[in-house]
Amino acid sequence: MAKMTERMKELFNKVPTAVLTTATLDGTPNAVPVGAKKIIDDETILISDQYFNKTLANLKSNPQAAVTFWEGREGYQLKCSITIETQGERYEETAKWIEALGNKAGHPLQSKGAVIFKIKEIYGVSPGPGAGKQLV
Amino acid sequence: MAKMTERMKELFNKVPTAVLTTATLDGTPNAVPVGAKKIIDDETILISDQYFNKTLANLKSNPQAAVTFWEGREGYQLKCSITIETQGERYEETAKWIEALGNKAGHPLQSKGAVIFKIKEIYGVSPGPGAGKQLV
Questions:
Q1: Structural domain includes residue A133
Q2: Looking at the domain assignment, is residue A136 inside a domain?
Q3: What residues of chain B, 33 to 52, have a C-beta less than 8 Å from chain A?
Q4: Tens digit of each residue's pLDDT (9 = 90 or more) over B71-100
Q5: Is the CB of residue A96 less than 8 Å from the CB of residue A48?
Q6: What is the pLDDT of residue A33?
Q7: CA atoms of A93 and A5, how far apart (whole Å)
Q8: Which of A31, A35, A79 lies closest to B21 in CB terms?
Q9: Is residue B106 within 8 angstroms of chain A, CB to CB?
Q10: How many helices (DSSP H) and strands (DSSP E) are in chain B?
Q11: Is A1 within a domain?
Q12: With an 8 Å Cβ cutoff, are B68 and A33 in contact?
C-alpha cells in the first residue's frame, strides 16, 4: 500500500472532479469524471457509484483502477485495487451522503455502491521532466 | 470511425485540459491530463507528447486510448485507435506549434511526437441516467 501526503489529500479534497480510469481485461481503457469522492484514510479513498456503466463492468471483471486529479500544473495519479460494497455500514453511510448531496443540488441522487480504492502506488502527472515519476 | 458533432468539437477546443487514458495489454489503466491537443478533422485529433512516460509505453504496446473531456455536467469520451508520428510534415508542424506554446508560456517545450487519434466510438460521460451511453 502507498500513503498519500497531506498535500495530496488536500488537493484531492479541493478539486471538484477527479478522473476514474478502468480497463477491460484485454486493455481497452475507460475514463469518467467523478465528483462523489472522499478520503477514508491515507491509503484509502471511496467513490460512490450513481451512474457507472462501463466503469462498473470493468471494475467487476478487472478490479484495478487509476484515480487522477490535478489543479493547474500540479497533479497525481493513484494506482489502486478496488472492492465494491453494496451493503453494510460503509455503504449505508455513502447512501445517506449521496442522498444529501442530491438534496443540496436539487435533483435526486442515489448511490448504487461504494467503491473502495486501496492505493498501491502514486505517480506525479504534473507536466515537466518529472512527469510520470513514481512518488510513493 | 465516428464523427464528432459541432458541439463536441467546440467543447474539446474550449476545455484547457483533456484526459488521455491508456492501458497495458493486461488491463492496468493509466490516465494523465493533457493540454497540447487539437482537432485535425471530425474523426481525428492530435495530442503532442512532451512528457509521456507510462502513457507512451502503453501506446506503443497497446495502440488504443480514450480521450475524455468535460465542463460542468457535460462531457464526452472518445474511444480511439492511435498512431505515433515522430517525423514528417505533421510532426514538424506539431514541433513548431509546441515550441511556440513554450515561448508563450515562458518555459521551453519540445514535442517528442504527434499522437494521432482516430475516433472509433463516442460516449457521453455527463452524470445522469444516460451516463456512459454510446452517442456516435
A1: no
A2: no
A3: 33, 35, 50-52
A4: 998 999 999 999 999 999 999 999 999 999
A5: no
A6: 95
A7: 25
A8: A31
A9: no
A10: 3, 7
A11: no
A12: yes
Q: Cite the beta strand spans of chain A per DSSP E.
A: 18-23, 29-34, 37-41, 44-49, 64-71, 74-85, 113-124
Angle at B47 between CA B35 and CA B114, to 5 degrees: 135
Smallest Cβ distance to B29: which of A29, A51, A54?
A: A29
Question: What is the distance in angstroms between the Cα of B89 and the nearest Cα belonging to chain A?
Answer: 25
The CATH number for B112's domain is: 2.30.110.10
Task: Please enumerate in sequence order all residues whose Cβ is within 8 A of that of A60, keeping only pairs 6 or more positions apart, or say none.
Answer: A84
Mutate to test the interface with B, among A125, A126, A133 (most CBs of B within 10 A): A125
> Residue written as cell 515522430?
B86
Contacts of A17 in chain B (CB under 8 A): 70
Distance CA A12, CA A76 (A): 9
Asked if B127's CB is within 8 angstroms of A35's CB, the reply is yes
Using CB atoms within 10 Å of the CB of residue B63, give its burial: 0 to 12 exposed, 13 to 18 middle, 19+ buried.
Answer: middle
Q: With respect to residue B93, please indicate whether it lies within any of the assigned structural domains.
A: yes
Q: Name the domain count of chain B.
A: 1
- Average pLDDT, consecutive stretches of 10 residues, N- to C-terminus, chain B (136 residues): 97 97 95 96 98 96 97 95 97 98 93 98 90 91
When the pLDDT of each residue in chain B is averaged and rounded to a whole number, the result is 96
What is the residue range of B40's domain?
Answer: 6-124
CA distance, residue B11 to nearest chain A CA (Å): 15
